[in-house]
Amino acid sequence: MLQPPPAEPGMREEEVDTPALLLDLDAFEHNLDTMARLIEPTGAKLRAHAKTHKSAMVAHQQMRRGAIGQCVQKVAEAEQLAWGGVPDIMVTNEVVGARKLARLMALAKVARVSVCADDARQVAAIEAAAEAAGVRIPVLVEIDVGGARCGVTPGPEAVALAEIIAASRHLSFGGLQAYHGSAQHIRAPEARAAAIQGAAEGARRTVEQLRQRGLDCPVVGGAGTGTFPHEAASGVYTELQAGSYAFMDADYARNTEAPPFRHALFVLATVMSTAVPGVAVVDAGHKAVPTDSGFPLVQGRPGVTYAGASDEHGKLVVEGGAARPELGEKLRLIPGHCDPTVDRYDWYVGVRNGRVECLWPIAARGAMA
Questions:
Q1: pTM for this predicted structure
Q2: Do β-strands 137-142 and 69-72 pair in parallel, antiparallel, or remain unpaired?
Q3: What is the pLDDT of residues 79-90, one digit of tens each?
């Protein structure tokens, strides 16, 4: 159940109750427009990844700027987007279990949905679920292009699975899922480019072998915020699945030659204690801002560092003669990893020029099934 929103439209930012998830609308819109401008001349299409934002409101903003649809990782995420009017959704993941597959097939009656597979047994289960629901859905073969997580080996193994899908009565072969997730945060640009070159070559080889077997490959999907220019330039990828670009977290900013996007997502926190010299404590600890990709940055306060966290406390250390934040002061924290940060909150508080402009529900928060 959604919690009451921490703000109201028209309220000043410093009046927002904390911790709160703040969306700087000017920076957010800049990021969406920048991505649309960058990929338009490449011929590739954006299928933005909703595992980042978990919101049909954000999805519609992306599609107004040319995105052809959305990606998700979970059936529950797909449900929230479809119920929110998103017409084209790809589950870029394997879905296992009769109950989950039945839910996915129910969605196929209200939106175009597709799903990935990397095992013939999965394909058989998807086929059975589609037959029971009386629908026909595209299934993509996921290939392992370097992530060593899911996916069959590019080449003959992928082609064999594609042929099984293509021969199914209730499935169609949708293409290849070729996402190299671990390449997104390779810091050195040359190493990032080399990783994607290898991924693109594996996908290219598989597409050619599919063609030799008489199979068209309508989609080659992949890419992320850290690498999308390389996939777009490869001539192989048809759909780019970047998600974090909309918000731009602190970890992406640590890449050498960081993506050309602005920080748009913040955790707004309040200084709740200044009892210890050289330290300020905010009301945003582990429960408010994940630290799997490092501690958050404090926006606009050089010399003030988020240095430690417990459940409900964030410790700021003040160094180099910087002014210590005052008791009751509101600070913007830039999260290290936007995806799990968003999953902590029920609402985006959209702000512009220091005022709350809108409140958007994060409907797919906690959608793990």
A1: 0.97
A2: unpaired
A3: 999 999 999 999
